[in-house]
Amino acid sequence: MSRVPFELARQAARLGCTAKYCREDKSFEFRLDGEVLAVVFPDGAYAGRADGTETAAQKAMLKKLRKAYDAVCEFLTLYENGVEIDGISIFPDSRVLAFANGVYFLGIDLGLFRGFQFAALSRSSVSKFYPARKFPAAKREFLLRSGLRTKE
């Protein structure tokens, strides 16, 4: 089973949306005001509501859910393809997601119920640790610290 539904459920709760686990097909339903907005299946596939009857609040939540879903898929793919290096992986279940100019982008799996954290790490310093919901900020810090992107 993919971690996508679990990670998205964690982020949906912070957005103000509820997630309900369906035992029959092992999917997660994401609801707002009692109505199903989206479903994420065990393999990580996403199905959003698009029947034209959504309220403005539901449309806004659907947009936020889709953005969160895309970020979750991105960081899980990076983590699955990341490299475990003994001398650098100072945290259990951590992987190097990217490396540039002496700066490592680290992903740390804290387990199914606690999610992921990210940090930019160099020999001289460690950035703050970002929770999964702040993945874009962690990625931006890595790009700035490694010199791959300039401050805007």
The biggest sheet, with number of strands, parallel, antiparallel or mixed sense and barrel status, is: 4 strands, antiparallel
Number of helices: 3
Mean pLDDT: 87
Helicity level: 25-40%
Q: Which spans have pLDDT < 50 for at least 5 consecutive residues?
A: none
Distance between the termini: 40 Å
Outline: elongated
Query: Which range does the strand content fall in?
Result: 25-35%
Radius of gyration: 17 Å
Biggest sheet strand order reads 1-2-3-4
SSE string, helices as H and strands as E: HEEEEHEEEEH
Q: Class by helix and strand content?
A: alpha+beta
Instruction: List how many beta strands DSSP finds.
Output: 8
Tell me the quaternary state.
Answer: single chain
What's the helix and strand layout?
Layout: H1 4-15, E1 18-22, E2 27-32, E3 35-40, E4 46-48, H2 56-81, E5 94-100, E6 103-109, E7 116-121, E8 130-131, H3 135-146
Antiparallel strand pairs: 1-2, 2-3, 3-4, 5-6, 6-7, 7-8
Q: Describe it for me?
A:
The protein is built from three helices and eight strands; from the N terminus they run αββββαββββα. It has helices spanning 4-15, 56-81, 135-146; strands spanning 18-22, 27-32, 35-40, 46-48, 94-100, 103-109, 116-121, 130-131. A hairpin with a 2-residue loop joins β2 (27-32) and β3. The mean pLDDT is 87. The chain has a four-stranded antiparallel β-sheet, with helices on one face. A four-stranded antiparallel β-sheet has the order 5-6-7-8. It has 152 residues and is α+β, with helices and mostly antiparallel strands. The protein is 33% helix and 28% strand. It starts with a helix and ends in a 6-residue tail after the last helix.
